Amino acid sequence: MEVKPPSDNIDALASTDQVRSYCRRYGLVLTTNLREWLLLKADEKGEPVLAERYSISATEADFWAAAAHPQKLADAHGVRLIEYLKRALLTTAPLRTPGDVAWFLASYAREALSRVEAAAIPALGEIRTALAQALGMSFSGLKGEHFFRSTLVQTVFYGVFSAWVVWCRSLPAREKSFDWKQAQWIISVPFIRTIFEELMVPGRLKPLGLVEVLDWTEQTLNRVDRSAFFSQFQEEHAVQYFYEPFLEAFDPALRKELGIWYTPREIVRYQVERVDVVLRTELGITDGLADTNVVILDPCCGTGTYLVEVLDRIARTLREKGGDALVASDIKEAARTRVFGFEILPAPFVISHMQLGLFTLYPRCATRDQGCGACWSIPDERAHRMVPRQAGHRTAIPRT
Questions:
Q1: Are 152 and 248 in the same domain?
Q2: What is the pTM for the complete model shown?
Q3: At what angle do helices 121-135 and 141-170 cross, to 10 degrees?
Q4: Alpha carbons 196 and 192: distance in angstroms, whole number
Q5: Closest CA to 105 of 118, 126, 92, 87
Q6: Given the DSSP bridges, would you call strands 48-55 and 296-298 parallel, antiparallel or unpaired?
Q7: So what's the pLDDT on residue 229?
Q8: 82 lies in a domain?
């Protein structure tokens, strides 16, 4: 670590022979003039390259002016600086567990949210319009404004993580590095891709300072031990079950307030199997959930856990009947026309679309250009219009 007084230029300090010597010897150097911080890593030639930067003030005069109000300075930078230093100290630590990856992504998301919260309203105008149109909602008042900014950050970061999951599956040998700028090309679910086409535009992200933070996120994802990570989170479940640890690290108070707790897959599977059995044995529907007259609605679908399990049960039933050739088509039709989910929170809603897309794209069938029945909706009379009511539709609730 190299520490100099606030009067020194941090960029000049980073290029000194001493810092370059440290970098060649140790591979990692943290330099600071107390108002700016640079984390430098050695490249393949041993030369220092910037990994992460944190700035309290651009000039010495601004620094001392801010230091005259210590509480205000601590409120603005205390938590963020500590997070930066934690990331710096953990830069070379192996990333193997979902919790470790969630912490890093949530840390970057909190930094991104701080930047977005500090951004001028005009800089967010086009992004707000794009996100509101994509989600079919509006953000009004102070609470709505904060909700919009938090939703923006969660959507961006969870979309990048989701794209990374897809990328990992498409390139298991890891022939090249993941690039967050390609997320909109990697994501195959039309709804999610539309959001990213609107949001991931340099002219919209750069004024918010998000490009730099997303670059750091990309570097972190590229050093994850994928074998160890996915041994704990199977790819088709990584997206939906990653949301809880991410939100726990990103905003634990919000997670508790919104009651976001994932249901273990074993319980989900039991409950879905129980409904399937009731349909067959008590209502006389031979194919259970696979019967085309059965409509499924999850009124609080969250990240789509139950919807995916229902589709999995339908697929297994169809294959058991020997219909392998038509399973893909039948599942696609079920996902579009009779398996529905409502969700009031935009971020889990986005994840549910990605989760359903991963399910239908990889394990059993492809729906690259088809939508699904997950709907973002504030519960009201629209719910009755969004689910088709047809003759012969039946509902089963298992006894407990």
A1: yes
A2: 0.74
A3: 70
A4: 6
A5: 87
A6: unpaired
A7: 86
A8: no
Residue 98 confidence (pLDDT): 81
The residue with tokens 């079919």 is: 136
Number of Cβ atoms within 10 Å of the Cβ of 141: 8
**Among 258, 292, 311, where does a domain finish?**
258
Q: Which residues contact 389 (CB under 8 A, 6 or more apart)?
A: none
DSSP state of 31: E
Expressed in percent and rounded to 5, the helix, strand and coil fractions of the chain are 60, 10, 30
Q: Which domain holds residue 2?
A: 1-75
The CA–CA distances, whole Å, from 142 to 114, 117, 148, 154 equal 16, 12, 10, 18
* Residue that the structure tokens 């049960």 belong to: 313
pLDDT along the chain (400 residues), means of 10: 92 90 92 94 88 93 94 92 93 87 88 83 71 71 76 82 82 75 75 70 79 92 88 65 68 70 84 96 93 91 87 90 73 86 76 72 42 45 35 39
Does residue 217 belong to any structural domain of this protein?
A: yes
Task: Tokens for 398, please give them.
Answer: 């298992």
For residue 331, the SS3 value is helix
Q: Residue 297: what are its φ and ψ, rounded to 5°? A: -130, 125
Tokens of 202: 């340099």
Q: With contact defined as beta carbons under 8 Å apart, do 30 and 88 qualify? A: yes
At position 183, the amino acid (one-letter code) is A
Name the domain count of the chain: 3
Q: Pull the structure tokens for residue 134.
A: 């994509």
Q: How many Å apart are CA 355 and CA 339, to the nearest integer?
A: 14
Amino acid at 370: Q
Report which residue type is found at 350. V
Query: Which phi-psi region, left, alpha or beta, contains residue 199 (left: φ > 0; alpha: ψ -120 to 50)?
Result: alpha
pLDDT at residue 113 in the model: 86
Q: What is the pLDDT of residue 242?
A: 66
Three-state DSSP at 162 gives helix
Written as one letter, the residue type at 19 is V
Cβ-Cβ contacts under 8 Å for 274 (sequence gap 6 or more):
398
Q: Are strands 48-55 and 374-376 parallel, antiparallel or unpaired?
A: unpaired
Extended strands (E) in 344-381: 374-376
Do the domain assignments include residue 195? yes
Same domain, 221 and 109: yes
* Per-residue confidence (pLDDT) for residue 172, from 0 to 100: 62
